[in-house]
Amino acid sequence: MNSNQNKQRTDVNSLGEFGLIDHLTRNFALNNVSSIKGVGDDAAVLKVGEEVILISTDMLVEGIHFDMAYTPLKHLGYKSIVVNVSDIYAMNGVPTQVTVSIAISNRYSVEALDEFYAGILLACEKYNVDLIGGDTTSSPKGMSISVTAIGRAKPNQVVYRTGAKVGDIICVSGYLGAAYLGLQILEREKQIYLENPEIQPDLDNASYLIESILKPEAAKDSIEYFHKHNLVPTSMIDVSDGLASELFHIAKQSRVGLYIEETKLPIHQETQLKAISFNIDPLTCALHGGEDYELLFTVDPKDLEKVKYMPDVYIIGDIVEENEGLKIHTSGGNIKDLVAQGWQHFKKD
Ligand code: ADP
Ligand code: MG
Fold first, then answer.
1. Burial (CB count <10 Å: 0-12, 13-18, 19+), residue 83
2. Relative to the CA of 28, which ligand 1 atom is closest?
3. How many domains, the chain?
4. Best exposed site among 52, 105, 148, 319 by fewest CB in 10 Å?
5. Ligand 1 lined by 168 (C-beta under 6 Å)
6. Is 58 in the pocket of ligand 1 (CB under 6 A)?
7. For residue range 55-112, what is the model confidence (pLDDT) as tens digits?
8. Domain membership flag for residue 229
9. What is the pTM for the complete model shown?
10. Which residues surround ligand 2, an ion (CB under 5 A)?
11. Which ligand is nearest to the CA of 349?
12. Closest C-alpha to ligand 1, atom 10
């Protein structure tokens, strides 16, 4: 007989993704002096000698994070490294190694996996990380990928989600919303293809948007700029779930409020145009789209000059007192509460 039979059954959806992580990890304390930061940021932080080691893991699951109908395996390999390297950058660290673990069904041939690894190799070269191990196992269905990225930083260089202070300036390292629209284009083409395989894909000049979802880049240049100019943001996170969701993480963990200006949000012209043609508000793409892999960071106002000269940087708002909450000044002159998806429901990421 099942001993769990009379126990309460709580649906994972009821806690939300972040609530579920909090729930599962609530009994774990850090007992080793080398464990500086555990659960709760973009990467864990371990003290080793004069430096700290950063470790971050992300999983990609077929049917949830990628669809084989429109995902070239080489791009998938590349992206699986990029999303992990991005978490090391989000701590202001330098990525140095990765491990790659895969579970694959026999639908995948050696040639297909060679393609996947060609993408991994390309990303390892671009981001200067070494592939140092992993695990390979079979799966009854589809493909799952788990990548762990390891990086290093000087202890006083590490940037957490907890350090934003009232008066700090909120910045992002590049355009938002493009990956979300790229995904909408691919989904639409897939539906058209399924209904009528004779029709060829209509990817009319959408290469920027499609590349944003299939082959994103991590904000390497921003981190190099920070290090070169001795600029240490007060807090930082990478934009994986969507700007609004990441702003909630910063606000909650730094115990501050914030406001952002709609007119300052960096939205590429192609994103604007395609959003309008899809009848989606470009603002929704920028706030909730996700998978941008840009850095969202705050800086002390004394560093404003250094920030201004960053090649790609957009100043989007300010940190205020916690009791002011999270607000957006709309282009129409209104002030609205920010809402974030992913905080109420268990999302597919
Ligand atoms: P990110 O979007 O930056 O990859 P996540 O939202 O996935 O971060 O995770 C937030 C934090 O929770 C991280 O510190 C991560 O290591 C931790 N975490 C996520 N899932 C689990 C889990 N199942 N067990 C322990 N820690 C987890
Ligand atoms: Mg992250």
1. buried
2. 25
3. 3
4. 105
5. no
6. yes
7. 999 999 999 999 999 999 999 999 999 999 999 999 999 999 999 999 999 999 999 9
8. yes
9. 0.93
10. 42, 87, 238
11. 1
12. 40
pLDDT at 114: 96
Does the beta carbon of 330 sit less than 6 angstroms from any atom of ligand 1? Answer: no
Residues 72 and 129 occupy one common structural domain: yes
One domain for residues 175 and 296: yes
Class of residue 6 by CB neighbours under 10 A (exposed 0-12, middle 13-18, buried 19+): exposed
Ligand 1 contacts CB of residue 84 (under 6 A): no
d(CA 237, CA 54): 14
| Residue 58 shares a structural domain with residue 117 | yes
Residues 116 and 188 in one domain: no
Residue 290 falls inside a structural domain = yes
Band of pLDDT at residue 194, cut at 50, 70 and 90: confident
- The full length of the chain comes to 349
- Evaluate whether residue 180 is within a structural domain: yes
Q: What is the CA 61 to chain-centroid distance, rounded? A: 15
User: Is residue 169's pLDDT more than 80?
Assistant: yes
Instruction: Output the residue whose Cα is nearest ligand 1's atom 11.
Output: 40
Q: Does the pLDDT value for residue 248 go beyond 50?
A: yes
Same domain for 275 and 194: yes
Q: Per-residue pLDDT averaged across 291-318, rounded? A: 96
Residue 1 forms part of a structural domain: no
For the Cβ of 25 lying below 6 angstroms from any atom of ligand 1, the answer is yes
Residue 151 has pLDDT above 80, yes or no: yes
pLDDT of residue 346: 44
Residues 186 and 307 in one domain: yes
**Domain shared by 196 and 328, yes or no:** yes
What atom of ligand 1 comes closest to residue 18's alpha carbon?
Answer: 6
Tokens 């709609």, residue located:
262
Report pLDDT for 193.
79
Verify that 68 and 95 share a domain, yes or no: yes
* Smallest-distance ligand from the CA of 248: 1
Nearest CA to ligand 1 atom 5: 42
Residue where one domain finishes, among candidates 103, 132, 157: 157
Domain that holds residue 17: 10-40
Tell which of 133, 157, 181 closes a domain. Answer: 157
240 lines ligand 1 (CB under 6 A): yes
Residue range 250-269, pLDDT digits in tens: 999 999 999 999 999 999 99
Q: What phi and psi, each to the nearest 5 degrees, are found at residue 189?
A: -65, -35
Q: Are 152 and 52 in contact (CB under 8 A)?
A: yes
